[in-house]
Amino acid sequence: MPQTQHAALTEALHARRDDLIALTQDLIRIPTLNPPGENYRDICEYLDRRLRRMGFETQLIRAYGTPGDCDAYPRWNVVSRREGKRPGDCVHFTSHIDVVDVGAGWTVDPFGGLLRDGKIYGRGACDMKGGLAASIVAVEAFLETFPDFAGAIEISGTADEESGGYGGVAYLAEKGFFSPERVQHVIIPEPLQKDRVCLGHRGGWWAEIETFGEIAHGSMPFLGDCAVRHMGAVLDVFEDRLFPAMAARRTDMPVVPEGARSSTMNINSIHGGQPEQQPGSTALPSHCVPDSCRIVIDRRYLVEETRDSVQAEITDLLDGLKRDRPNFDYAMKELNHVIPSMTDRDAPIARTVAAAIESVMGKTAEFVASPGSYDQKHIDRIGKLKNCVAYGPGLLELAHKPDEYVGVDDMMDSAAVMAQSLVSLLLPATINGETN
Ligand SMILES: [Zn+2]
Fold first, then answer.
1. Which prosthetic group or cofactor does it need (predicted)?
2. Which among 124, 191, 238, 432 has most CB atoms closer than 10 A?
């Protein structure tokens, strides 16, 4: 890009620093807690006003009938589009508007948007209202500097990412908003760090496993059959065979942190027999052999695995117990499933954002993948759009924690990278060429 235009874009961004701070604070001050899914309409209307001012055509879309959608907590989304002067590719920035529960341990108001020492504090500051604000300001600076761009720019604010995205990106993808005919490049400004390009995420498979027994008097357990002991055998076989097998499996995905570069499984919960005593209860338990024990598992899997292979590996172990262990019987029920998604690092959007990081920050971009999933899965599976990355300011480690914050300098740098990516994707080669 010629030097003068480069300078004009940088100046347009710097002139917006205070505005970026104010926008981030405004977004934090709308408490969009999920659950239950509060104030989605308010934040969508706020974004709608802002985006219209920039010449975007906007739509407010309620995801009727999706999980949690009801008149008290409607699942609203906003999608906006601004056409360029000539045909070309469409670049879409999509951010979720919801934030997770506040939790204990805060020393500042979680919805105050406090600015202190170059950081803005609040629930959602880094995950991901800071990223949303950075993308809006990047687009505004780009539009001011290059009003004659080709193609189109879209910005969306979507519901429910923190609870799976079914009332948000999944719903919009089903309605065609992420079809490759409409959108060619997607950036999700999740807090993956300003010098990293996130190519995708692992898959997840959640299931409940139940073992069965036979109720009897606790003084004569041999007259019954203890479901908790059967579950003990399940846990043993997981320890002896499943966990070592998963740990030995390594992925080519650049997942960070390092420990997540293998298959992993968490056991979320275990319960067998009588309900736990309520706190404060002085009643004593009665004496019974439990006839049921349940666990919930959270299995995260690699792009080299499939849902079927993940499920079969566990089924094989449980069927082995059924053969070898007297009276063993079990049931397994899938609770949820999401696919892994991995964009090629040579995909146009991955290369473009990496090059923009290099030109803005003077360092080589790191390609990473996320241990947990985010909205890319829906864009990939439902939208059939493969040209998608996550890129945005903030540290993933701060997400969902007390005193969550986002750094103003980090937002400014990320906004510069986003604006530079728009230059590469939406301006003709004469402006964009290696002339500087
Ligand atoms: Zn997020």
1. Co(2+); Zn(2+)
2. 124
